[in-house]
Amino acid sequence: MKKLTRLLLPFVCFSMAATASAQGTTASLPKSKQLMVVVTDGWNNLQGKIFVFNRVNHHWVLKFSNAIVVGTAGLAVGDGIIPFNLPGAPVKHEGDKRSPAGIFTIGTAFGYGDKKDATWIKDHYVCASDTLICVDDAKSGYYNTLVRKDTAKTAYNSFEEMHMKKDYYKWGLFINHNSGKVVPGDGSCIFMHIWGNATEGTDGCTAMTEANMLRVLHWINAKNNPLLVQFPIVEYKKLRKAYGLPAVRI
Predict the structure, then answer these.
(1) Distance of CA 166 to the CA centre of its chain
(2) What is the largest CA-CA distance in the chain?
């Protein structure tokens, strides 16, 4: 078998001494100058809103906001940079059609265009050609990783095509859920990408119109250590002050 070429996804791994809860926490966020907040009306809701902020003089300043959809089944607690224990909340696992709730760093940007067509993106960029896939086989050593399928004969039994007939992945971002020390079965291939429409949920990603996805990609800058905070609005309000997060409303 040919050696499988792995496309490294940039992520930041933080060690947290305590497990956070909705009632309080001793953990703190890494320094960031860019923040995306996604909120929905509840764990089982697929529609919501994203708020995009810049850090200016120690304050979060809203840049823009727009409608989004998450997983068809809603949200579930995922594996981010801080472990959360939220009693009664669903927990993310492979194939549950829920988007991960939590606090996440951002990985590579991707799209159907060549690299020369994406020089305006201030992040690592991967061309989602016909050979690019994301492995969702929990038994594979390449689980939750973008790879080129033309460099391998086996090593995985299931995967997701990154160059689709539809425009879902024409532009997008890899969200670092279950990254670093990957846990088999905790969920894979979580993206921010273009939606089908305002009532069509995803398999576990966060999606929006193409115009809004492009706006996010023009705004985001890997040097600013951007973060995604994603929760139902009730849980977000409970955690907001503990982490110094901005107020939002749907």
Answers:
(1) 20
(2) 54
125: left (phi over 0), alpha (psi -120 to 50) or beta: beta
- The per-residue b/e assignment along 17-31, b for 16 or more CB within 10 angstroms, e otherwise, is eeebebeebebebee
pTM as predicted: 0.90
pLDDT in tens, the chain (250 residues): 333 334 444 433 333 333 444 444 445 788 999 999 999 999 999 999 999 999 999 999 999 999 999 999 999 999 999 999 999 999 999 999 999 999 999 999 999 999 999 999 999 999 999 999 999 999 999 999 999 988 865 689 999 999 999 999 999 999 999 998 999 999 999 999 999 999 999 999 999 999 999 999 999 999 999 999 999 999 999 999 999 999 999 8
| Angle, CA 31 vertex, CA 25 and CA 32 arms, to 5° | 115
* Cβ–Cβ < 8 Å for 75, 40: yes
94 CB-side CA count, 13 A: 18
Residue 109: Cβ-neighbour burial (10 angstroms; 0-12, 13-18, 19+): buried
What is the rounded distance in angstroms from the CA atom of residue 22 to the CA atom of residue 11?
25
